[in-house]
Amino acid sequence: MSKARRPLPAGLMWRYSLRWGLPHTPCPGAFELAAAEVAPGDPCPAAVEALWKPGAGYVISIDFQQPEGAMRRWSKEAKARVRQRNLAARLQRQVPLFANELFSRETARRPAYYAGETVQYTGGTDDAR
User: Domain range spanning residue 94?
Assistant: First the structure.
């Protein structure tokens, strides 16, 4: 069965560009030689493709632009549910005999994290994470 595809937001474009593609070699000139925006699904424009030469170090890249709207964030409840499920699965896989006890210890040690709150890591001891 195939899934129904969601319609693309209006104004969403694909961006083809000819850029330097060897990360460990210094770029001899401009990092990006050409770029063009096209409708989703259209092939690379001839103007960009004509500049590409094999072995020169430049590659044709494609960027899928994101809609201008804000990213959808997970709710605290969803984050909490997933974090607790992942912890339980990890403990069940690694130490099945003690999984329940270690689960309750870990959720008591870091209640804010397992309640779905975003906790900033400041570095240092393991207790801060």
Answer: 76-120
Contact 84, 90 (CB under 8 A): no
Total domains in the fold of the chain: 2
Which residues on adjacent β-strands are paired with residue 60?
18
Residue 122 has pLDDT above 90, yes or no: no
Burial of 58 (0-12, 13-18, 19+ CB in 10 A): buried
Q: Which amino acid is residue 109, in one-letter code?
A: R
pTM of the model: 0.49
Whether 58 and 22 map to the same domain: the answer is yes
Helix ranges (DSSP H) in 1-129: 46-51, 76-94, 99-109, 111-114
**Residue 73, Ramachandran bin (φ over 0: left; ψ between -120 and 50: alpha; else beta):** beta
Cα gap 111→129, rounded to integer Å: 12
